[in-house]
Structures are given as structure tokens and as C-alpha cells.
């Protein structure tokens, strides 16, 4: 059977089973067969083959794109003749192929001696921005050799005509509203985790957004209002909380965006999204990738009484009242020049924050990538020509406040800033390019990152990146057919790209399923680093880390840079003393509760960096705090440690990197060895006193300061999804923090200890609790299932070496076996301890789930509806979040414990070594030299 026949069979299956169009082609072999049928003018499939070639072939660096570019070149040179594809049309098709093989062909033609093809090739090249060193090196060499056409191309680049000649964004944009949900809209609603396997198949994945009924409603709204764009809204909530999730934005664009090119299937852009409380920060970055618009509607405001005091409900939450309606079907107008939202002539709200010069550039260019590459291309051309590049793009916003010290994140951004003109340090609000030190990609977004890299024609990792890792943790639980199809292909691509991969395509080292965030935390060896990761929980306890969409991850891998504003910070310090029965997770939850109390219900963390003065807590344990900050809707988090603690944390990171080397994970570029060398350099700087641990200046300015009183924490604290709250907008948020006594005698159906929120200490706590219960009762009986998923294999190995794994294995009714991994997801649970493979497990919800309607107590991080547990017909599923000892005891009892039972169960166990720092972790403000890595 030919590849084409197989493709036709697949087309028929997709159409009959799913109602889908043909899947876009990325295979060189299949496209070669299609081209052969095009050349055969009498072939029965010639007409369809032409359509597939023109309209259904993926661009960039896919192998199919290489074959397509080569055939178009042959047509342009007259070596092949296709009646339907003239040389002019061939040039047009090349112009939509976004770099890689197409740019190589255009350069071949532009540099040829035949002026009839060189000039039109040059005109197409002037519109392209995805050029890499191999391409610019050819241009530079030809220019130096006196090539007049190349000089013309470079002059166009130097003037950034690829940007200036694009049409400006419309002054008036009509939108028709669609309330996608009430309350916060998680990206799980737009792109469910349990459908992660299909994200790279954009049309198929689009079927999972919200509901089929919602999709149809959006389509009907578009038909009813053909001159307006459908705007998806989070009513009384924030749009896109939880993660960036490029697939979520892709889905919104697929149903309510614009076609990016007639020759690139199912890649839409420029969606419009909005929320009463705006857009979650990392999701807004993803919207910028597509050139879309994100609006902060502010259409619900806090109600006040006649004295100006905020009116509160029975729970103490502010009562909201509607400032204006955005009910589904309302036609509004965005005035992009006045930067306001109107209903007819009535001004509703100022939306200036949505139309900064930088965001407008993304909209005009069709996305942020084109701006990033365009700036680099303009700089190259100007330098090659020896001219000064005209100011075309909005200059980087550089804010420097005289006499004001720097927060920790401001220091990191200043240290890593690229292309800054200011001679004085930059403060929050500045908008700059920065060098990215560490990059992480995970396995459910990884296939999309590969697509993004192909689309931007990148073929190898930037040499300026210190380290990068591709994980396999999100699909670790079940080695099913979907994982078998996607994961090896992903690992092979990333390994060839230059990334350290969890799975070795050559099969030399054991396949790892370590949680991405834990590995990134280990390979981050500098507290002044910037980390970009393809998951919202990229929140390292060394350096500052930003969760990002798959495309921004690709951009960081390809260029070693990112562009973003310097964020504001909120300072978090601690006072008082921890009680011996409290776990550090309780401190994390109490921080959220006390912050909301201190600021009358306002989440001051949202969109800002949480600078937590953690002091003497090692990076492994401190990660529990920084990881949680994603759920606080913070942009990022930074741990401030003292010198001694930081050295210990980096030494631990070194040892774990060495284990990766010993296992055979090192690559040809010696990336891991390079990280160890960087770690040694950082330790030397700390010990010499020349480069002490990162600390803010004592004159730094914060948006807010939160002081957490440890004396107030006397019970384990629970984050509750509050699934039955009468106010739908209050469900599935992280703002409901309650003490364990609230849940006296509440049944527990399942417990989960795992994901990125736990560390080795948590596993040791489980072991010690089992020993204590064994000593007290002789035997241990679980009255509810307990699922335990260690974060990394290193931790498992260390527990085995130290003896703690033995007690876990003794009471495990199931223990993972890498030689015979599960091939099907578990649907029923027994009342036993399950020792699962390292990875995300239940937290991800894409493979394993609790039984529908269960009440789950977990160390996980997510309160998304249906994520860990779906609803049943009788009862809503609940995923309540708490500490490891609370989870373990609850499964032994089959219910939530009393505070007395809890205290007895942890007596004698050292739950945490955390204590507030005894000294101020700040430094005197001194002039800071900006190091331009460029």
C-alpha cells in the first residue's frame, strides 16, 4: 500500500468518525509521492494532490516543507512545469512558508546570475523575518562580494520594511461578546489536560474547547455578526488562569480568530479574549504570540455603602455589582486609537494597558515572534551596511527612578538585559529583552514546541542557553498507545535539537519520567538566572522562572532570549514561630489566607513577582512555596536565601547534575558539564564575598509587603475548591483556605501525594508515619486508597539507599515497574498504597484520575474542575489540597482527622526546618553595572 493510499484511508476515517478535514502533511515521503502524482497529468488523484500540496502542507522546517520548497524552486527555474502553479504563484507559496527550506531556496534564487528570478526572489525575501545565521552569513558574504540585489535586500531589512509595510491595526474593532464561563476560566476549559495528546493536531484538538454546544454558539454568533469578532469572556473572573497553554489560545483562535494564511491549514491568529479581572499574565503572553487582544473589562466592581466602606457577604468576601453588561451577544467597539471600549457612543472602560506600543506591534506583525526576529534582522542588516538603523519599533521602555533601590527581580533583569541604552538601572515597568539561561519543555506541550520551532525555521538550540531539558513527566503514568506514538518522536526531535532529554532516542540510558520543575530546579545553578518553562509551575527557588506557552519556549530555545516587562514585586516575610506539628505546606496556604485578610480580599500577588524571604530553607523545600505561587496568580516568585543556604542548594544541584551525567544523559555540547562549571563559579563568588547571594536593596520599592504570622498557624490548612458555593464565580479558586477542623469527620475517598509540590522530605515523612503507626498498632490498614508518585528517580534511588523505600514498598499494594509499565489508566482503586512511577500522575488528570465524584485530599496544585477528579451524577468531585502528613493520615482513617489525631500522628517527626530569618535579607543599594550578554 502506498503512503498516499494510507493517507486517503486516514482522511476517510477522520471524516467519518470525527467530521474532520485531512490532517496537514509534515512527511517528506508522502509529499514526494503527491508531487509525483501532480507531475503525472493523467493521474486519477492529481487534482486532490494539487490541493494537498498547495493548501495542506505544513511550513517551516518540516521535512515536507523541504520537499515543497525544492519543487517550487524547480518550477521557478523552468525545470518542472505545472499548469496550475506558475512561477509567480510559486513565489507566493514560498512567501508563506515561514523560513527554513523556503528561505534557503529564495536565497539560492536571489543569489543566482539570472536576474529574472533573482529580483522577484529578492522581493519575497524582503517580507521574510525568520532568518538564522546560516542565512544571514550568505547575505553578508554576497554583500561583501558586491552583489547589488543583496545590498537592496539589506537596505530593506535595515529599514524594517517587512514590518513598516504591513497595514496598521484597525482603529475600530467591533466585537460580539460570548461569556465562556462565570468565574476564573482556567486553560483547562479551553484545552483540557486529558486531551493533551491531540494538541499538535490543531483541528482535532479544537473539538475539546469548552463544549461542542459552546463551539456551535460561537460559530452562530460569528454568522449573525459577520463584521464583528467573537470575544470570549471570563465573567466575574480572570481569563486563562493556571497556565499559558498555547493550545488554549490556538483553540480560541480556531473558533473565533482570523486565518493566518490560506496556505497553512488550521493556524489562526488574532483572537480577542477578556475577563472581568483581566487576563492571567502568562496567558496574556500567549495571546501576544498570536497577535491577539486581551482586555481587562472591570465590569464588576466592589459594592460600597453610604460611608464608602466595602459591603461584604456572609463569608466576608466583597459583594460585587455590575458596572456594565457584557451579556452574550452584546456588540461592543474597541477604539484602538483612543484605547477605550464602547457600547455605541457610551464609553465603558479604558483599555490602554491592552494597547501599549509593544502589544500593538505584536498585533500589527501577526504575533510576537515576527517582532523578535524582525528586530534582530534589522540590527544585523544595519551593522552589515555600516549604518544606523532607523527607529521603527517602539523603543524598549526604560524606567529608572533616581534614588530608588532594586528588588531582587529588578536586579536579575538588569543583569540579563540585552540592548539597553540606559546608563542607570531599570525599575519595574521597563520593557526589555533579556537573556534566558535555562529552558524547559514538557511532554504534553512539547509536540507543539516542536511545531513552533519548525514554523520559525529553527534547527538547533541557541549557544547562549546554559541548559535545557525535555521532560516525560506529564505522560508518565500510563505508557499507552498515545504516549508510545508521541513521546519517542518528541524526544528524538528535542535530542537532535540539542536539548537534554528524559528519554534517550538511542536507548543508552534509562528512560526518565522526572517532573520537569524538579529537574529545572536542579539544573538551575545561579540565583540570578532567568528560566523559561513550558508549564505554569516553572517557578524555581533559585533565579526567577516564568511559565510560558509552547511557542515562547521555542523562541527561548532558538534565540536564547525573551522579551517582557520588568514586573512589580510583593515582598513576603515571616514572623513568629512554627509549631512542631505544622508542615511547610501549611505556611504556604496560610500565606494566601493572611494576604487576602491583610488586603481586604484583594489578591496583591496577581500579575506580580512574589519575593519570599525564605532564609535558611534549602531550594528543594523552598520550591514548595515558589511552585504554589502559580495558583496565587503570581507572575513568578523569587526566594531570598542567605549565603550558606544558597551554597548548600547549589551543591545539591551539582550532585544531581552529576548523577544525570553518570546515567549517560550528557550531550555532545557537554551541557551538563557546563552547568557544573557554572555552579562552581557561582559558589566561588559567594564564598569570596564578591558575589553574595541575591538580595534586594534596602531602598527597593514594592507594590505591597505581606508579613506572615507563623504564630497564627495552629492547624493544617486546606485549599478548598468550594464546589457547592452558591456563587459560581467563587468555585475552583485558591482563595478559600480553611483549617482542618472545618472538615471534622468528612469522608475521604482517595489521597494523593505527588507531583511537583513534594520533595524528598515528603517521602521521608510518609516512611516515618508508617513506622510510627506500625509501632503503635502492629499493622496498618488503609481505609481509602493512597497514591504516591515521587517527583524524580534520584529521590527514589536516595530513599532506597537510605532505607526509607523499604517501608513504603512493604505496605504498597502496587509498585511501579519500568520494565512492565501500565498500558491502561486505572479506573477503580482499592484501599491500598500505590507506589507510582515518578511524574505528575493525578495532578495532570490527562491519564490517571480519581473515581468520579470522589473527595480527594492531595498535595497536588490544581483545583480545576474535573482535573484530578470529575463529577459524578450524584456528587461533584472535590480535590482539596493539603500537606503530606494530612493526606497520609486521612487515607488511613478514611476521613479527615481531628486536630488531636493529627498531632498524635506526627509526634516526633521533623516536618520542616523552616524558621524566619533572624536578619534582614537586604543589601545596601550600590550602582549596578548592566551586563549586555549580546
From TrEMBL:
Keywords: Iron, Iron-sulfur, Metal-binding. Residues 7-163 form the Aconitase B HEAT-like domain. Residues 410-894 form the Aconitase/3-isopropylmalate dehydratase large subunit alpha/beta/alpha domain. InterPro entries: Acnase/IPM_dHydase_lsu_aba_1/3, Acoase/IPM_deHydtase_lsu_aba, Aconitase/3IPM_dehydase_swvl, Aconitase/IPM_isomerase, Aconitase_4Fe-4S_dom, Aconitase_B_HEAT-like_dom, Aconitase_B_HEAT-like_dom_sf, Aconitase_B_swivel. This is Bifunctional aconitate hydratase 2/2-methylisocitrate dehydratase. The lineage of its organism: Bacteria, Pseudomonadati, Pseudomonadota, Gammaproteobacteria, Cellvibrionales. Pfam families: Aconitase, Aconitase_2_N, Aconitase_B_N. Residues 177-406 form the Aconitase B swivel domain.
Amino acid at each position: 500500500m502506498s503512503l498516499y493510499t494510507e493517507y486517503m484511508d486516514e482522511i476517510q476515517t477522520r471524516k467519518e468518525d470525527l467530521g474532520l478535514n485531512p490532517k496537514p502533511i509534515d512527511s517528506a515521503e508522502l509529499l514526494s509521492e503527491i508531487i509525483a502524482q501532480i507531475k503525472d497529468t493523467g493521474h486519477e488523484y492529481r487534482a486532490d494532490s494539487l490541493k494537498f500540496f498547495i493548501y495542506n502542507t505544513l511550513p517551516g522546517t518540516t521535512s515536507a516543507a523541504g520537499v515543497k520548497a525544492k519543487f517550487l524552486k524547480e518550477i521557478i527555474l523552468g525545470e518542472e512545469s505545472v499548469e496550475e502553479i506558475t512561477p509567480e504563484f510559486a513565489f507566493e507559496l514560498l512567501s508563506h512558508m515561514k523560513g527554513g527550506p523556503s528561505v534557503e531556496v529564495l536565497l539560492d534564487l536571489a543569489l543566482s546570475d539570472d536576474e529574472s528570478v533573482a529580483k522577484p526572489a529578492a522581493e519575497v525575501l524582503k517580507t521574510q523575518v525568520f532568518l538564522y545565521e546560516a542565512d544571514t552569513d550568505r547575505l553578508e558574504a554576497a554583500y561583501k562580494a558586491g552583489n547589488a540585489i543583496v545590498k537592496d535586500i539589506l537596505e530593506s531589512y535595515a529599514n524594517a520594511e517587512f514590518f513598516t509595510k504591513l497595514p496598521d491595526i484597525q482603529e475600530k474593532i467591533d466585537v460580539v461578546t460570548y461569556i465562556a464561563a462565570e468565574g476564573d476560566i482556567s486553560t483547562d476549559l479551553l484545552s483540557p489536560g486529558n486531551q493533551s495528546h491531540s494538541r499538535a493536531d490543531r483541528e482535532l484538538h479544537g473539538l475539546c474547547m469548552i463544549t461542542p454546544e459552546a463551539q456551535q454558539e460561537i460559530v452562530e454568533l460569528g454568522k449573525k455578526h459577520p463584521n464583528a469578532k467573537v470575544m470570549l469572556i471570563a465573567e466575574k473572573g480572570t481569563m486563562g488562569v493556571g497556565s499559558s497553554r498555547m493550545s488554549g489560545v490556538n483553540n480560541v483562535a480556531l473558533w473565533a480568530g482570523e486565518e493566518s494564511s490560506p496556505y497553512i491549514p488550521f493556524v489562526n491568529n488574532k483572537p480577542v479574549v477578556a475577563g472581568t479581572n483581566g487576563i492571567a499574565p502568562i496567558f496574556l503572553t500567549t495571546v501576544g504570540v498570536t497577535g491577539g487582544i486581551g482586555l481587562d473589562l472591570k465590569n464588576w466592581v466592589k459594592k460600597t455603602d453610604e460611608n464608602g466602606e466595602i459591603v461584604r457577604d456572609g463569608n466576608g468576601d466583597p459583594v460585587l455589582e455590575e458596572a456594565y453588561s457584557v451579556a452574550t451577544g452584546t456588540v461592543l467597539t474597541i477604539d484602538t486609537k483612543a484605547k477605550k471600549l464602547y457600547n455605541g457612543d457610551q464609553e465603558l472602560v479604558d483599555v490602554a494597558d491592552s494597547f501599549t506600543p509593544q502589544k500593538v506591534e505584536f498585533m500589527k506583525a501577526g504575533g510576537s515572534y515576527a517582532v523578535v526576529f524582525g528586530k534582530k534582522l534589522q540590527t544585523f542588516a544595519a551593522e552589515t551596511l555600516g549604518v544606523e538603523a532607523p527607529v521603527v519599533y517602539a523603543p524598549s521602555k526604560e524606567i529608572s527612578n533616581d534614588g530608588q533601590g532594586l528588588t531582587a527581580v529588578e536586579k536579575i533583569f538588569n543583569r540579563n538585559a540585552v540592548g539597553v541604552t540606559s546608563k542607570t538601572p531599570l525599575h519595574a515597568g521597563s520593557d526589555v529583552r533579556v537573556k534566558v539561561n535555562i529552558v524547559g519543555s514538557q511532554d504534553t506541550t512539547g509536540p507543539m514546541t516542536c511545531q513552533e520551532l519548525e514554523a520559525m525555521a529553527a534547527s538547533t538550540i541557541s549557544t547562549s542557553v546554559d541548559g535545557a531539558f525535555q521532560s516525560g513527566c506529564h505522560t508518565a503514568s500510563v505508557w499507552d498507545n498515545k504516549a508510545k506514538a508521541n513521546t519517542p518522536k518528541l524526544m528524538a526531535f528535542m535530542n537532535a535539537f540539542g536539548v537534554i532529554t528524559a528519554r534517550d532516542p538511542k536507548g543508552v540510558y534509562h528512560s526518565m519520567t522526572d517532573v520537569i520543575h524538579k529537574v529545572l530546579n536542579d539544573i538551575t545553578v545561579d540565583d540570578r538566572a532567568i528560566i523559561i518553562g513550558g508549564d505554569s509551575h516553572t517557578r524555581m527557588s533559585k533565579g526567577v522562572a516564568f511559565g510560558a506557552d509552547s511557542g515562547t519556549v521555542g523562541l527561548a530555545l532558538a534565540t536564547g532570549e525573551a522579551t517582557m516587562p520588568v514586573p512589580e514585586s510583593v515582598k513576603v516575610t515571616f514572623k513568629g514561630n512554627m509549631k512542631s506539628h505544622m508542615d511547610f505546606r501549611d505556611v504556604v496556604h496560610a500565606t494566601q489566607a493572611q494576604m487576602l485578610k491583610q488586603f481586604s480580599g484583594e489578591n496583591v500577588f496577581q500579575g506580580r513577582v512574589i519575593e519570599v524571604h525564605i532564609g535558611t530553607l534549602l531550594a528543594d523545600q523552598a520550591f514548595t512555596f515558589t511552585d504554589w505561587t502559580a495558583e496565587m496568580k503570581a507572575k513568578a516568585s523569587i526566594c531570598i536565601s542567605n549565603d550558606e543556604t544558597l551554597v548548600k542548594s547549589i551543591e545539591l544541584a551539582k550532585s544531581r547534575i552529576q548523577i544525570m551525567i553518570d546515567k549517560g544523559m550528557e550531550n555532545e555540547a557537554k551541557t551538563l558539564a557546563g552547568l557544573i562549571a557554572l555552579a562552581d563559579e557561582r559558589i566561588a563568588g559567594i564564598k569570596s564575598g564578591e558575589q553574595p547571594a541575591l538580595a534586594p536593596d534596602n531602598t527597593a520599592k514594592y507594590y505591597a509587603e505581606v508579613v506572615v504570622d507563623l504564630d497564627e498557624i495552629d492547624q493544617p490548612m486546606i485549599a478548598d475548591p468550594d464546589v457547592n458555593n452558591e456563587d459560581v464565580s467563587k468555585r475552583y479558586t485558591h482563595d478559600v483556605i480553611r483549617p482542618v477542623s472545618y472538615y471534622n469527620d468528612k469522608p475521604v475517598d482517595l489521597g494523593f501525594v505527588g507531583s511537583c509540590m513534594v520533595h524528598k522530605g515528603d517521602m521521608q515523612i510518609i516512611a516515618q508515619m508508617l513506622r510510627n503507626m506500625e509501632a503503635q498498632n502492629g499493622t496498618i490498614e488503609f481505609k481509602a486508597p493512597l497514591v504516591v508518585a515521587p517527583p524524580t528517580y534520584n529521590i527514589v534511588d536516595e530513599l532506597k539507599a537510605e532505607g526509607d523505600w523499604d517501608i513504603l514498598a512493604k505496605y504498597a499494594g502496587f509498585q511501579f515497574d519500568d520494565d512492565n509499565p501500565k498500558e491502561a489508566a486505572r479506573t477503580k482503586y482499592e484501599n491500598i498504597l500505590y507506589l507510582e512511577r515518578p511524574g505528575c500522575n493525578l495532578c495532570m488528570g490527562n491519564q490517571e484520575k480519581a473515581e468520579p465524584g470522589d473527595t480527594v485530599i492531595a498535595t497536588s496544585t490544581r483545583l480545576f474542575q474535573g482535573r484530578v477528579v470529575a463529577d459524578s451524577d450524584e456528587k461533584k468531585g472535590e480535590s482539596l489540597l493539603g500537606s503530606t502528613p494530612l493526606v497520609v493520615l486521612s487515607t488511613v482513617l478514611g476521613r479527615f482527622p481531628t486536630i488531636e489525631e493529627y498531632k498524635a500522628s506526627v509526634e516526633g517527626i521533623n516536618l520542616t526546618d523552616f524558621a524566619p530569618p533572624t536578619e534582614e535579607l537586604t543589601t545596601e543599594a550600590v550602582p549596578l553595572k548592566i551586563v549586555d550578554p549580546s
